[in-house]
Design brief:
single chain, alpha+beta, Nuclear Transport Factor 2, Chain: A, six-stranded mixed sheet, 47% strand
């Protein structure tokens, strides 16, 4: 673990997203995104804003996807107020890669996703 407050906030935010997803809470997932976030979800397309992102995650949850886990997580500093996350991920029915999640510290001290680019590589 680190004592870097920005990195800690980013790590807490991804943990909150993962917990929300694993509790089948699409609104909780969407709450981790900045209101203007652009999410590229290959091969599904691009989704902009919390409402569209929440609808995407709800659709994934409704199809029975659950139990997301991250491996090979890497954090790279991005500017003075954020980090880029890259990782591999698995779910009960799929696996893939996070190419680039940009987590940025907000004025309230929380980190939010300001951009997200991930890809489904296959089914399980």
């Amino acid at each position: 673990m680190t004592d870097n407050p920005t990195l800690i906030a980013c790590q807490q935010a991804i943990a909150a997203w993962q917990q929300a997803f694993n509790q089948q809470d699409a609104a909780g997932c969407a709450a981790q995104y900045h209101p203007d976030c652009r999410m590229q979800a290959a091969p599904f397309g691009e989704f902009t804003g919390r409402e569209a992102i929440q609808a995407f995650w709800q659709g994934i949850i409704d199809q029975g996807f659950a139990d997301v886990d991250y491996t090979e997580v890497q954090w790279q500093p991005e500017g003075d107020d954020g980090y880029l996350l890259s990782a591999k991920w698995t779910m009960n029915k799929a696996f893939g890669v996070v190419h680039r999640e940009h987590w940025q510290l907000q004025q309230d001290g929380r980190a939010l996703l300001v951009s997200d680019h991930f890809e489904v590589l296959g089914e399980r």
